[in-house]
Write a structure and sequence with these properties.
By secondary structure, this protein is of the alpha+beta class. The protein is built from six helices and four strands.
């Protein structure tokens, strides 16, 4: 998680105090908050409302949910070997880009509506730029297999809304 955060923070030039204001957590299948995701989804970012105990106004809270079974299936299918660290950095960086876009870029204009395919295309491209900045022999195979220049077609039904969950999938 730390490496994905650091790369994303550096790419977007987010000052530490702003990053600390961003409220999110990470859940995996072992956590009680985990909910089943579509089989093709590797992870999902979901915008939740968090009510403050003091009774003050609610604030945005984001949940990054990893789809452990799908991650393991994809890793096995792509022969990634026993070291899943670069693959997890890729997945988490992709989700961090969604998180930044939802919390800052798209937040200020709730009227922005992108199709799921358009949003995923933007996130794929940004994640690729973030992860390809520094030469990294471990990341190169992940980028070539998962972070394509042209992301896979996603269903274009419905519209992407900053208040809705966004799923990241790989076929």
């Amino acid at each position: 998680m730390d490496e994905a955060e650091e790369r994303t923070i550096h790419y977007y030039c987010i000052p530490p105090y702003r990053w600390q204001q961003l409220r999110y957590d990470l859940v995996t299948r072992r956590d009680c908050e985990w909910e089943p995701l579509p089989e093709a989804a590797l992870a999902q970012v979901q915008l939740l409302q968090q009510v403050r105990p003091s009774g003050k106004a609610s604030c945005d809270f984001y949940r990054i949910q990893l789809n452990d079974p799908s991650i393991l299936i994809a890793a096995h299918r792509e022969n990634l070997g026993p070291d899943l660290y670069p693959f997890l950095v890729y997945i988490l960086t992709h989700e961090m880009v969604h998180l930044v876009r939802l919390s800052t870029i798209l937040r200020d204009d709730r009227e922005i509506r992108l199709s799921p395919a358009e949003e995923e295309s933007r996130v794929y491209n940004v994640a690729h730029r973030i992860l390809s900045r520094a030469p990294d022999r471990q990341m190169a195979p992940i980028l070539s297999k998962f972070c394509l220049a042209n992301p896979p077609d996603l269903p274009a039904s419905g519209q992407f809304s900053p208040a809705s969950a966004s799923a990241f999938s790989h076929r």
